[in-house]
Amino acid sequence: MKQLIQNTILLVVFFWLALPVLAKEMAPDILVKSTVDEVIAILKQDNGIKKGDKDRVLDLIETKILPHFNFNRMTRLAMGKNWTKVDPQQQKVLVDEFQTLLVRTYSNALTNYRDEMIEVMPLTTQADAKRTTVKTRVIQGRGREPVPIDYSMEKTDSGWKVYDVTVAGVSLVTNYRSSFNSEIRRTGVDGLIASLVKKNKSLEGQ
């Protein structure tokens, strides 16, 4: 299951690399759809990314993706009931390290893009909804089954934000909640933080 998440996580990044200036005024499905063509064009044309320029990839992610994800909420959801048991300083470190983990995972996966196509499903949520799920399918070609990727989003003052991603029926938040809870049971919150730091350093070196 972990490998599935790692192998498909690059597909998550497609929608958040080049959002228009008026993104916060757009419906979430239109927001997703409007980025697909531009993002795929960038991935196909950017020689630096295709050659694995890590600094270029990281800069792209940090400037274009991070503003559209609610990492604070994602971390709270991944921590579950353990979130209220940690002090504010630990909470901040956890959010920072979890964000770094996802960024490093994205950056290492992004260079593996191989001409996949994305289909965005029309949104059926009511116009005044505060939360919604944008459903997409990644068409892989070569006779392989499409990979469904759903984005759980919420409306905020600064636009729609992603707080969970479900790949082939597996929630990113739920997947990490299981591993976080297991680590906390074994080594406590400090042990979890240490394991995230170690994992981030290993990803940085790849």
Automatic annotation (TrEMBL):
Q: Which InterPro entries match?
A: MlaC/ttg2D
Q: Pfam families under this entry?
A: MlaC
PANTHER family (UniProt xref): INTERMEMBRANE PHOSPHOLIPID TRANSPORT SYSTEM BINDING PROTEIN MLAC
Recorded protein name is Phospholipid transport system substrate-binding protein
Species of origin: Nitrosomonas nitrosa
